Amino acid sequence: MDARFIATAMATAFTIIDPIGMIPMTLAATTRVTPQRRNQIVDQAVIVAAAIILFMGVVGRVLLDYLGVTLPAFMIAGGILLFLIAIDMLFARPTRTKRTQEEEREAAAGENPAVFPLAVPMIAGPGTIATVLLLVNLSHGDRLELTVVAVAYACALFVTWLCMRASSFLMRLIGTTGIHVITRLLGIILAALAVQFVLNGLAQTPLLRR
């Protein structure tokens, strides 16, 4: 087992889902409900996000093969997307790959924000799906490495669930400034991972290897 793959899977899962960053999102999406109802919404959101991540992890590679998308091409495209998300994290601003102003207005008007916007696109958004597909493709079908990917996202989702459940307490404890600091640190890690994905994709491109 490659220790670097384990570290990459864990770092990628936690940085792209960003459990700490989900604290203010949870409070904003559930501001009009009771604490008991908020807990129910959080449970539903994490379950739905887990189902989406699992589904994309299972069918994603088949879909890419069907579309004729090579692993180097997807690594480069995924790396670019993750780098854009990392820039938003570094400047502590909401990333538009996860939500837009129109989606925020729809969420505020909705009665149950569990599926939208918490599960999709906040937890299982384009960046999360891209990283799942990247890691699954990097495993090359190795069962042990696929298990590592599954465990990495399971751990990230569990920590996200804990943070969302305790969002009120953690917001008082960490504060907005603390959340921004942690998000920026995760953004630096994600930016480095994104650049590495692009470099790996370029290195595996047949035209550039000649």
Task: Describe, in plain words, how this protein is organized in 3D.
With about 210 residues, this protein is an all-alpha fold. The chain has one domain. The protein contains 10 helices and no strands. The protein has helices at about 5-15, 20-30, 35-65, 70-90, 100-110, 115-125, 125-140, 145-165, 165-205, 205-210. Helix 4 crosses helix 7. The two termini are about 30 Å apart.
Major sheet attributes: none
Helix content: over 70%
> How many separate helices?
10
What is the number of strand segments?
A: 0
- Structurally, the number of domains stands at 1
Give the distance, in angstroms, between the N- and C-terminal Cα atoms: 30 Å
Oligomerization status of the protein chains = single chain
**Average pLDDT number:** 88
Q: What is the 3D form? A: globular
Please write the string of helix (H) and strand (E) elements.
HHHHHHHHHH
Structural class: mainly alpha
SSE topology sketch:
Layout: H1 3-17, H2 22-29, H3 35-67, H4 71-90, H5 101-109, H6 114-123, H7 126-139, H8 143-165, H9 167-203, H10 206-209
From the structure above, extract its key features.
210 residues; 10 helices; globular; mainly alpha
Task: Please sum up the structure shown.
This protein is mostly helical and 210 residues long.
